[in-house]
Write a structure and sequence with these properties.
The complex is a heterodimer of chains A (111) and B (119). Chain A is mainly β and 111 residues long. In chain A, 0% of the residues lie in helices and 53% in strands. Chain A contains no helices and twelve strands. In chain A, strands 2, 5, 6, 10, 11 and 12 form a six-stranded mixed β-sheet that branches. A four-stranded antiparallel β-sheet of chain A has the order 3-9-8-7, with no helix packed on it. Chain B contains no helices and eleven strands. In chain B, the strands form two sheets. In chain B, strands 2, 4, 5, 6, 9, 10 and 11 form a seven-stranded mixed β-sheet that branches. Chain B has a four-stranded antiparallel β-sheet with strand order 1-3-8-7, with no helix packed on it. The chains are: A mainly beta (111), B mainly beta (119).
Chain lengths: 111, 119
């Protein structure tokens, strides 16, 4: 069975600094997708960034980028120039035939 | 962008009653919808996968007779919590898959969630 592990329950970063959230996963599939979702206090799930497993190039979306290491089954999220609005729960997710979420990392932004 | 709407956003019911939560895809046809349950400060746990016109596939440990899922059309899936008890109180979220999306597996969109409180 596929699993997604986020080993950092909480993290804090100073505003304007860079922070990296860790995620590892386990699967026997070769074709899958990985996501980072943000869940603010409103509880609405917001897609931050996504990566197709067959693509070697790391995905980037403005201040958000990933470090995808397929052999190591690692998918970390880097947030550059952190902003107060980035404070939220961040979930790493794996999708093949269904989406599996990690336990989440609560990110605090310190002004 | 595509929108998935859940209704109601909040519901309070008495123990023993049944509650229905609707998940609608507003501008696309969702061949597959997923239902999740989220306890406070915890992750989203997949309950079941709902495919239009067929029976839902439930995850291990989820009681199918307790959580009835009906995906009767390409734009609507419903989750009915039958004979609700206080331990069923939770945040329920649906997501819908748009197969016409640019990704091979289709785009995934989430509803706003429904908070169920059983007294």
């Amino acid at each position: 069975a596929q699993t997604v592990t986020q080993s950092q329950p909480e993290m804090s970063v100073q505003e304007a600094e860079t922070v990296t959230l860790s995620c590892t996963y386990d699967t026997s599939e070769s074709d899958y997708y990985l996501f980072w979702y943000k869940q603010p206090p409103s509880r609405q799930m917001i897609l931050v960034i996504r990566q197709e497993a067959y693509k070697q190039q790391n995905a980037t979306e403005n201040r958000f980028s990933v470090n995808f290491q397929k052999a190591a089954k690692s998918f970390s999220l880097k947030i550059s120039d952190s902003q107060l609005g980035d404070a939220a729960m961040y979930f790493c997710a794996y999708f093949s035939d269904k989406i599996i979420f990690g336990k989440g990392t609560r990110l605090h932004i310190l002004p | 962008g595509a929108v998935v709407s859940q209704h109601p956003s909040r519901v309070i019911c008495k123990s023993g009653t049944s509650v229905k939560i609707e998940c609608r895809s507003l501008d696309f046809q969702a061949t597959t919808m997923f239902w999740y349950r989220q306890f406070p400060k915890q992750s989203l746990m997949l309950m079941a996968t709902s495919n239009e016109g067929s029976k839902a596939t439930y995850e291990q440990g989820v009681e199918k007779d307790k959580f009835l899922i009906n995906h009767a059309s390409l734009t609507l899936s419903t989750l009915t919590v039958t004979s609700a008890h206080p331990e069923d109180s939770s945040f329920y979220i649906c997501s819908a898959r748009d197969p016409s999306g640019s990704w091979k597996t289709g785009e995934l969109f989430f509803g706003e969630g429904s908070r169920l409180t059983v007294l």
